[in-house]
Amino acid sequence: MIAYTMDGNLYLNITNRCTNRCCFCVRNYAPGVAGYNLWLKKEPAVEEIIGEIGDPSLYREVVFCGYGEPLIRLDAVKEVSKWLKDKEAWVRVNTNGLANLYHNRNILPELCGIVDAVSISLNAENARKYYKICRPQFGPESYNHLLEFINESKKYIPKVKVTVVDIPQIDVEKCRRIAETMGVDFEVREYGGSRKDLEQCGC
Ligand code: SF4
After folding, report:
1. Where does 3-201 sit in CATH, by number?
2. Ligand 1 mutation pick, 69, 170, 201, max ligand atoms within 8 A of CB
3. C-beta 18 within 6 A of ligand 1
């Protein structure tokens, strides 16, 4: 499934690749969300994504999200976002915030004017815990780059939010204070798996 609706929004699933292996990731315990199977046989081309969107005015927001990290496909996100903005859609990107490490440059200026909102997974109150829970391929320094990504986002994207998943390993209140200090919105997301799923992961 490339495009699916939920709560009045349209979600775009454009890749299954990710630079993290988070212990709470939905991919560890379900084939998708809301009954949609989100494993892709192949990554959709830009034309295919646009074809799946149809009329964007039908939705409150059009959201690039996972079953993977959408900013790995930066060029596709930019092309589709430009098309969406021409149609006056509201565009959000859900990201793990490590795209600057992946692309080895600051990609946020490239999203300016074509992305309205970004939702960035924080998911830990410090670097050591982030490395343990989210297992980023870029190593223990990833968390500092993630914080930098959040700060850079504020310069280029009108609405910036950070999120955490409500699992016992994460100190939600400390994360909330980090968001407040950084001057961005904060949201706690419900964990959809079982305690056993988390235990198996060993985080
Ligand atoms: S960043 Fe998102 S898609 Fe990637 S492993 Fe973590 S929860 Fe899953």
Report:
1. 3.20.20.70
2. 69
3. yes
